[in-house]
Amino acid sequence: MMQDTAFHYLRYPWGVSFTGMLLVAGPAGGVLVDTALPEAVDGFLLPQFRHFGFSLSALRLVINTHHHEDHAGGNARLRELCGAKFAIHRAGAAGLEAAGFRPDLLLRDGALLESAGLRFEIIHTPGHSPDSVCVLESASGMLFTGDAFQGCGTVYTGIALYIDPEAYLQSVAKIEALFRQGRIRRILCGHACAPFDGDVPEEEIPAFLEICRETVLRYSRAAEAYLANHPRPDAAELGRQLLKRFGVTAAPGLPGLEKHTAQAHLAAR
Ligand SMILES: [Fe+2]
């Protein structure tokens, strides 16, 4: 089956970078991971499908890595156009429903999804958000991570964006363990994560995961030093400090988001 399966890492141009999606197309149909933004469906996804000769009617399943709009925003438009089922981790259901979209399947860690002769494993990797998952295409070892891992940061935020540092570190360790078992052979991210462009080949995976871990520890040490000198800490101020010291871009595409990472470190103390 694998030789008949095509993998397309789709990068929807968005602001200063892109939102990534993965289309896995086999002889019996296809599975899409993430849908980017609402306008991405007609403006980008459909032309891409045509370019690859993939018929929208062959789309069987959509898996969202998490509920954030830049990854799940295209769900509703896609549902209008085809009969695919939509799946998300159960912790993301409320977020989708708040945006007016009801998913068909709610997933747990370790869930196995089989569709169109393709097989995917859901690996719960919270930290960026409570519902973040990685999607592993079992036969190829291709792992789509969405926003679960951010290296030194994305150009959108400027730094790595997460709301639970401890969970983020545990998620890094979880993926490392799977890599050591030989089950992961390529990582694809939802955005470019410095110093990588979003596509991490097998030989670079240990370095990528180590950078993710080191980044959290670096922010954590900076937060401790900040707290030692600021009896009334302010997350926005710590966020600006993190950006200044560790930022991967001088002008983030979505300024202000760094305060969420800062708040997470303050709350962890
Ligand atoms: Fe996100």
TrEMBL record:
SUPFAM superfamilies, per the entry:
Metallo-hydrolase/oxidoreductase (SSF56281)
Q: Name one GO molecular function term.
A: hydrolase activity
Note the InterPro entries from the entry. Metallo-B-lactamas, NDM-1-like, RibonucZ/Hydroxyglut_hydro
Asked if the keyword Membrane belongs to this entry, the reply reads no
The record places domain Metallo-beta-lactamase at: 18-191
Keywords, sorted A to Z = Hydrolase
Q: Report the protein name in the record.
A: MBL fold metallo-hydrolase
Species in which this protein is naturally found: Victivallis lenta
